[in-house]
Amino acid sequence: MRRIALATAAFILPLGACSYSEAPADNGATPAAEGAAATTTANPLSSNDAQPGAAEDKPRPLMQAQVVLDRLGFTPGVVDGKMGMSTVNAIKGFQEAKGMQISGQLDEPTKQVLAQWKNIPATRMVTIPAEFANEQFAAIPKDPKEQTKLKGMGYTSLAEKIAERFHTTEAVLAEMNPQAAGGTSPNTPVDNNVSTTAPAGNESAAAAAIAYRAGMQIRVPNVGADRFDPAAVKDEKWASTLQMLGVGTEQPTAASIEVDKSDQVLRVLDGQGKLIALFTATMGSSQFPLPIGTWKIQGTAFNSPWQYNPALLANADKSDPILQIPPGPNNPIGVVWIDLSKEHYGIHGTDSPDRIGRAESNGCIRLTNWDAARLAQMLKPGTKAVFKV
Length: 389
Hints:
alpha+beta; L,D-transpeptidase catalytic domain-like; 3 domains; nine-stranded mixed sheet; two-stranded antiparallel ribbon; 10 helices; globular
């Protein structure tokens, strides 16, 4: 088996249950102060695009807390204004980092600490730029053999692209933009023989009816406005991916990470063992359990193809050949693979962000694409990774 040539060359590695190939190593991102939220015009659909006088249309206290937590690195996964498992985990992480009693609830002491960011609104208005909307959207075949014929596993619609950019779902966007409903977008694929990557029944009928287009003004969750410095990223395609996901280049540096099976979270710690970031994660299954122990980060692969190996996948047709699935945000490993010293295992993104923490994996640690991209910038080869029950 070929192993990683750390920090010196691209690498190709068949990784079993969650495999990848061909991508450069560590990105060398610059650490940042906690909660940095400044923007640049290079960041597509940034808060610089906010419409003057576009005040909140209604109170969204829980979403406002999710937005602040997302900006601080205690991410709620999908920002939806609901108190789900990922939001509870985010609040617990924030409370732990602040030395508070850990309740997982927006209790009064937690609200008081979060009040210092009360000036950050829950939502903002943006205008969809033509360059953002100008993409060939296409549905993704279910058959892996058909997927290999694609140029890339890109977004299936402009609605999906916008939702991922603002760390939310199409249904949440539809609820926030009732004025935009009333027609089928020309960018939405219509083919009964293929399906998008979203689980059936996940999106409302209203979401499917939104005709997003260039120039349209829409309301979105107020996330993805972190400072972005193009000079800090060596790989131009990776820089574009970070901007597409609204992930800034300035992130804290991890001394170690902990993957906690019981809590379904990945914790990021500094040199003093203090919690500095937390992500809800999907990890392992009965067939491919989480490998308990202490490992190390080997390297990072950006926008990588994925090796479909049916012998190492729980629900695959074992008669299928080994295939290479092209890269893209709807690739099963998402936009980034973080390789571990434990053979066949890694930390990666996903094509189904709303299922994080709610489904089994083929052994690896799965995050939303935006969380995986943020984590990748916190790590370097040799960072300790402790996996525990």
